[in-house]
Protein: COP9 signalosome complex subunit 6
Organism: Aphis craccivora
Amino acid sequence: MENTNVEMEVDEPQNNVVATNVTGSVSISLHPLVILNISEHWTRLTAQVGTSVPSIGALIGKQKDRTLEIMNSFELSYTVLEDNETMIIDRDYYNSKEEQFKQVFCDLDFLGWYITGTGSDKPTFRDIDVHKQIINIAESPIFLKMDPHGGQTDLPVKVYESIIDIMNGVPKMLFVELTYTLSTEDAERIGVDHVARMSSNDAQENSLVAETLTVQFNAIKMLHSRVKMLLQYLKEVKNGDQEINNEFLREFVSLCHRLPVMESGEFYRDLYTHCNDVALIAYLGVLTKCTNEVNDYCNKFNVLYDRQVVGRKVKALFL
């Protein structure tokens, strides 16, 4: 969704935007789903544009006391100005995405933002400028930066919070690195484990569904080739090109008897019975839903009727 018409240069890390000897004020609990979302966002954007460009998004989760739990994320749209340095966040797009996520994840709040694809996991002056825009959305947002090009074995993710420091009498915004821990839920752990198994090596991998369909396709293909070979043999025997082998013919007849007869009345009777059972189950589900709605309507009607009766009785006492 980003406006990436202008090719952006790779940022050089700026060490003087990170405060040293300062301890973070909050603890971070990061879910692997967020990392997967960020990686997918950057990969998709890079594939569309054809070159590595920064991808920016929002972090949502829960906050309890001084602990922030980052549980999900969504992408943000931005525009690069003509100087090829300044990035402007699209607030209208953010408001629209936040409203959509609130309808599904009503208990998750905006916690901060992320950026990736800048060539480093160190913050830069450009990140400071974007962070100042994010402060207009949340008072104390956190900042996550990931380097997808990193070849190290450690997770190339850094999380920061911002502070205001006085340098030479001038207030200056700096980042403070935060420590984080990974936490998962049961459903999330299953999904992450599936992705990890599929991407455990660099070879081309297919999904489990594709593998199952491939096995079935290969089995049907082999059966088709064998049937063609048998049919060719029978044609050659009929034409006198092959000698008659009664043992083979008996096996052919036995094989044909094993195959289901699709045109028999019993097949269609079983098929219609199965279809009727499925339709009946669906119909019972609809009836149950309608009965529940009628029951709710009756309960609401009784509540209103009781109120009217009580009101009439009270009114009759004063007559």
Notes: Confidence is low (pLDDT under 50) at residues 1-13. Residues 55 and 272 are 54 Å apart (CA to CA).
